[in-house]
Specification:
Strand content: under 5%
Oligomer: single chain
Number of helices: 17
CATH topology: Growth Hormone, Chain: A
Radius of gyration: 22 Å
CATH superfamily: MFS general substrate transporter like domains
CATH architecture: Up-down Bundle
Order of helices and strands: HHHHHHHHHHHHHHHHH
Largest sheet: none
Length: about 450
């Protein structure tokens, strides 16, 4: 069956397919729960592994395998979901499976230190660290499996006119979820749950944060799963205006061929992504140690000061999310995406560099508020630029899965080199945030290579 349209007919279909605000909200609501899980991982993993006995120079290595798994899994999820047409939907089955696995891992991961795995095993890591490492791999992979379908569903079901609004709603829910996830440990400490524990054991405030995050994650995902009805193949082809038969034939194309045919924006935005995600990997890895040393004057992971710094990491990351929410309102006011991108990354770089010079816990609010500007741009602009460049493509899921490699690869490189860079600058974890700022400045320069053109592929 072939589907062709004239301009008037195509515009009529697009107008007919306009979604209401609440339809777009329901489409992305599960992202709120997924982002709570991601925020808990980002803010607490270094704290968890340091508590389990990891050396600061080892911390970045714990972040290598999760993005490596993401590079393998995400393109496959994109390809498989592009080919999936069943009663439950096209993307939703993967969303649900990813969420269920993430919930199970979130229950087990924070209990790694309570399993009496203290014996040193392979590579000098004790059993608790190995258990935590494999849990982290499954957690990061499952979060990405659950997260990616939300981006794909917007590309599938929202027309070009509404796509910016739909991704803005998704960005809002993303940052709102981050706020909750970042603040959970300090909230549970405030209501009286212990924030310290014996050596090698994760504090109860962190454990209960993961439990609560897991419950919210599955409830939010189930809400979207039940509220959203995806298109069938015929509706999808009509909505996107292409030949359904050719779409089926196009599925035979391999990843290499897709990369060769990728729009230029895929590669130029990917270069910017490399610098940005490497910078934020350093932030997630070294903020805890930097704040503990600069503000509380300690590197002792058992001390009350170090665990207080761990809670404060959640607070400053929440401030980052607030900064991102606020700045997201201004991004559409720029004349073009490149100007917004460059401005956001430069301001974020200044935020990173300023952390090195600050020794007051409240002044850190300014630094992380500015870092939020860069995060807002990273959430919205790459996907807006890329999906516009992919207009009319029947391989949206596969390209978004491949594009996820521009998020995973820089994290792998940064994690692999993090210990060496830390040693080279004298072991200063605050200095690693200066390196993060320099990386964002490099990203701002790389934005100049982007040419927005929806017909360059």
């Amino acid at each position: 069956m072939k589907v062709y349209f004239g301009i008037k007919a195509w515009n009529a279909i697009m107008e007919k397919r306009n979604l209401s605000f609440w339809q777009m909200f329901n489409l992305s609501f599960g992202f709120f729960g997924v982002q709570i899980a991601y925020a808990l991982q980002s803010a607490n993993i270094s704290r968890i592994f340091a508590t389990l006995g990891a050396d600061p120079h080892q911390l970045s290595f714990f972040w290598i395998l999760p993005p490596l798994m993401g590079m393998i899994v995400q393109p496959l999820i994109g390809r498989w979901s592009d080919r999936t047409w069943c009663r439950m939907g096209r993307r939703k089955p993967y969303l649900l499976v990813g969420a269920i696995v993430a919930v199970l891992v979130m229950i087990f991961l924070p209990n790694a230190g309570s399993l009496n795995f203290s014996q040193r095993l392979f590579l000098g890591l004790n059993g608790a660290m190995w258990f935590g490492l494999f849990s982290l791999i499954f957690l990061d992979t499952s979060i990405n499996v659950a997260m990616q379908p939300f981006k794909m569903m917007v590309g599938d079901m929202v027309n070009e006119k509404q796509k910016t609004q739909a991704y803005s709603i998704q960005s809002f829910l993303c940052n709102a979820g981050s706020l909750f996830g970042y603040l959970f440990p300090i909230f549970f400490t405030w209501i009286g749950i212990a924030n310290t524990a014996p050596k090698g054991v994760i504090p109860d405030s962190v454990i209960w944060s993961f439990y609560c995050g897991a419950a919210i994650l599955i409830l939010c995902v189930l809400y979207t799963f039940m509220k959203v009805k995806e298109m069938n193949p015929k509706e999808y082809a009509e909505f996107h205006g292409f030949d359904l038969q050719k779409q089926q034939e196009g599925k035979k194309e391999g990843f290499i061929k897709l990369l060769v045919q990728a729009p230029k924006a895929f590669w130029t935005v990917g270069l910017v992504q490399f610098f940005c995600w490497a910078a934020f990997l350093f932030m997630w890895t070294y903020t805890n140690g930097a704040i503990a040393k600069n503000v509380w004057g300690t590197t002792d992971v058992v001390s009350e000061g170090y665990q207080a710094a761990g809670n404060w990491v959640g607070v400053v990351f929440a401030i980052q999310a607030v900064g991102s929410l606020c700045w997201a309102l201004f991004i559409p006011k720029f004349k073009n995406n490149r100007a917004a991108y460059i401005t956001s990354l430069v301001i974020g770089a200044l935020g990173f560099i300023s952390v090195y010079f600050i020794h007051d816990q409240y002044l850190l609010f300014v630094s992380y508020f500015l870092i939020g500007f860069a995060w807002a741009a990273m959430l919205a602009l790459p996907f807006s630029i890329l999906t516009n460049a992919l207009k009319g493509s029947s391989h949206m899921g596969e390209y978004l899965g491949l594009f996820n490699c521009t998020i995973c690869l820089p994290q792998i490189v940064a994690a692999a080199l993090g210990g060496l860079v830390l040693k080279a600058i004298g072991g200063s974890q605050a200095g690693m945030l200066v390196i993060a700022g320099i990386l964002l400045l490099c990203g701002a320069v790389a934005v100049l290579a982007i040419r927005e053109n929806t017909s360059d592929h």
